[in-house]
Amino acid sequence: MSMGCFPIYTRILLTLLLCFFSTFFSSQAAPYALRISCGASKDVRTWPTNTLWRKDFAYTGGVIADATSHSRSRITPPLSTLRVFPLSEGPQNCYIINQVPAGHYAVRIFFDLVADPNFDSEPLFDVSIDGTLVDSLNAGWSTHDDERVFTEALVFLSDDSASLCFHSTGHGDPAIISIEILQVDDKAYNFGPLSGQGSILKTVKRVSCGERRPMFDEDYGGGGLGGDRFWNSLTTFGQSSETAIFGKGTIQRTSLAPNFYPQALYQTALVSTDAQPELTYTMDVEPNSDYSVWLHFAEIDPSITKAGQRVFDILINGDVAFKDVDVISMSGGLKTALVLNTTVAVDGRSLTVSLLPVTGSHAIINAIEVFKIIAAESKTFYTEVNALQSLKNALQLPRRLGWNGDPCVPLQHPWTGAACQFDNAKKRWFIDGLIYGLPKFSSCAAHPTSGIRADYD
Predict the structure, then answer these.
(1) Signal sequence span per UniProt (predicted)?
(2) Residue 93 belongs to what H/E stretch?
(3) What was the pLDDT predicted at 128?
(4) How confident is the model over 113-133, as a mean pLDDT?
């Protein structure tokens, strides 16, 4: 039946309903998720979650190698190949992944060792995402703990692409086993006025208190826009006097936007004891940095039945961050999730969270997350990057020159021979000249869109 058979007001109503449902269902599209098995020649799926890993693509160079199995951590994806970037391929190499919708993403990169005695056993290198340095691997990363075999950051991606670069520091060749780009809610982990596209949150620590084994969100039954977070297990803070407790039944106010924390995260906890009423957890951090701290609670202790029975203060590096915390009162009931967030400046190399009982003799905590707040670098004008790449290809410049990723950022690793200037008005970098010796370049055209002019011998 055609719409012409209906009165005009009915046709208008039907049109509005069609528009509404079309918009509604399009907004329910699955979040963007890309996983790459570096070095793989075909798509693979991994046990036990049947996770799909795309075959290797979008790399600027490098060679394929076998990944080690004996040194792999408990959480490294069970993949058999990796991509190695020898220094002969240039001081920086990247994955330039196009057609990534603009949005907020959890980007996770796993490292591994090469199963070849001719390669350095533990390479040390820097990692940048969209031109911002997010990690520098330190000696011992392959044997330290699960949290050092990958780097993870929450970033806003634009320009319909993601640039993940690996910068050699003269200590072995970067070796990458997998890359994950997982969309999260645009408002996820909003830590205050500085949150948003100008900031990156680099994961420092994420622990599930009382849990016996490491878990991902997917293991917890989470999904959607949570970013498949990794939660390390923590059965003690080190005092050996806490009690791990396990709650049964439904936990209220979980799996909610924008952070979508899974319910199972709140079904375990650590509780202090008479022997050690205070709970204290200390972690290593980089000095002179700001950190976003997220603390998770749910009252699952059967000995606590009403508000007022357990009240405690929370101190971070000795300063009171939250006073008179009553989980039942603040969350709205028993077995109800409560998340507290604060930002702290740390001068030293450690961050300590302490829970001090005020009413009752014991404190409780379910999980801890800590992120380093990194100011996102402004990028170089896209047209100038393209012009330099075209010049590189036209002149067949050697791979050892590098010239991958952004020529001006991260500031610690600019391209060899590129003279960069910053446009304060447009908050972008531009190329003010090339000073590479062979061939010889000079007199670059003015920015931002006219391209690069080169005079060479």
Answers:
(1) 1-29
(2) strand 92-98
(3) 98
(4) 86
Whole-angstrom CA distances from 435 to 387, 391, 430 are 16, 14, 15
What is the Cα–Cα distance from 48 to 179, expressed in whole angstroms? 19
Under the banding of pLDDT at 50, 70 and 90, the label for residue 361 is: confident
Alpha helix stretches (DSSP H) within 2-127: 8-27
Peptide bond into 410 cis (omega under 30): yes
What integer pLDDT is reported at residue 359 of this predicted model?
Answer: 95
CB 348 within 8 A of CB 291: no
Q: State how far the Cα of 208 lies from the Cα of 98, in Å rounded to an integer.
A: 35
> In the prediction, which pLDDT does 456 show?
36
Residue with tokens 């999980």: 367
Characterize the bridge pairing of strands 161-171 and 92-98. Answer: antiparallel
Helix (H) or strand (E) holding 301: none
Q: According to the model, what pLDDT value does residue 26 have?
A: 40
- For β-strands 289-297 and 418-423, DSSP reports them as unpaired
Q: Pick from 255, 257, 134: which is nearest to 188 by CA?
A: 257
CA distances from 10 to 2, 16, 18, 434 (A): 12, 10, 12, 66
pTM score, whole prediction: 0.88
Contact (Cβ atoms closer than 8 angstroms) between residue 60 and residue 83:
no
Q: Is 176 left (phi over 0), alpha (psi -120 to 50) or beta?
A: beta
**Are the C-beta atoms of 423 and 429 separated by less than 8 Å?**
yes
Taking residue 411's Cβ as centre, other Cβ atoms within 10 Å add up to 12
Contact 89, 399 (CB under 8 A): yes
Strand partners, 316: 319, 353
Q: Which SS3 state, helix, strand or coil, does residue 223 take?
A: coil
Is the confidence at residue 73, as pLDDT, over 80?
no
User: Is 158 within 8 Å of 80 (Cβ atoms)?
Assistant: no
**What is the maximum alpha-carbon separation in the chain?**
82
CB atoms under 10 Å from CB of 446, counted, come to 11
Q: How many CB atoms lie within 10 A of CB 197?
A: 13
As a dihedral over the C-alpha atoms of residue 425, residue 426, residue 428, residue 431, rounded to 10 degrees, the angle is -70
Residue 167 has pLDDT above 60, yes or no: yes
The DSSP-derived string for 404-451 is -S-SS-STTSPPTTEEEEEETTTTEEEEEEE--TTTT---PPPTTTS-
Q: Which of 392, 372, 366 is nearest to 454 (CA)?
A: 392
Provide the pLDDT for residue 262.
96
Among 249, 295, 243, 251, residue whose Cα is nearest residue 274 = 243
The proportion of the chain whose per-residue pLDDT surpasses 70, expressed as a percent, equals 86
